[in-house]
């Protein structure tokens, strides 16, 4: 929620009515962290006892209507205005899907993230001495095909985000005859930016999520030393002794076979060596 002077403005999810989380950049601007393909409304509130006239712009384009506002009105939701059969309603706006602006529009000069903006302008309320008609009418706003160049300036041209017309609509409210009014002097302008989560991370408005890494202990080969070389020599001597024993046993078996004709069963013992199983790697990055 951004408050300036007598007015507050925020962006809310059109379905849940929950405001989008906001973050303040080092440049002092406030950015709403939005979700692509989500309908939203502009919610505004006045703390001024005097009537004022509000106008709204999204992505640099006026929504095409003006709205009177007083403290007694409380929070009001605004979007794309429609009047049909004497009832006023508002269509939600929608955060468009992410896209590559350079490839879609063909502009190679600007490769920054497409940062959307919502602007509220406050004017003095000037009442006229005539009544307005209740003819059907609606906002003539269309999405802006050009980027908001005063938004975040990032090195990547991916993860762009802008606004299109949404699907959700507020319930119609019957309108009685009313006195016409017009805008007087401009009092102030309040601006709120919006961007996707990945865009805010790329712009360093948000910190990237922590990467979970786990240390995986793996067996290291033992380092050889001079004593190992001596052990190898001892092992060679042991192997020679083993070979002599085997030859002597073989000779004894041959003598027994030749003398009695009885076969002697040789029992071979096998030693099982347990090894570390490294195939089950539970490490993740």
Brief write-up:
The chain is of the alpha+beta class. Helix content is 16%, strand content 37%.
Please give a structural write-up:
The chain has 285 residues and is an alpha+beta fold. The chain contains 3 helices and 15 strands. The chain is elongated. 23% of the residues are buried.
Largest sheet properties:
9 strands, antiparallel
Low-pLDDT sequence parts: 100-112, 147-159, 213-217, 264-285
SS-derived structural category: alpha+beta
Strand content: 35-45%
Number of strands: 15
Order of helices and strands: EEEEEEEEEEHEEEEEHH
- Shape annotation: elongated
Helix percentage: 10-25%
> How many distinct helices?
3
Cα(first) to Cα(last) distance is 37 Å
Radius of gyration: 39 Å
> What is the arithmetic mean of pLDDT?
75
Describe the secondary-structure layout.
Elements: E1 2-4, E2 7-13, E3 22-24, E4 30-34, E5 38-46, E6 52-58, E7 61-69, E8 76-78, E9 80-84, E10 87-95, H1 101-105, E11 116-131, E12 137-138, E13 163-169, E14 173-174, E15 179-196, H2 197-202, H3 226-260
List keywords for this structure.
single chain, 285 residues, nine-stranded antiparallel beta sheet, 3 helices, elongated, disordered C terminus
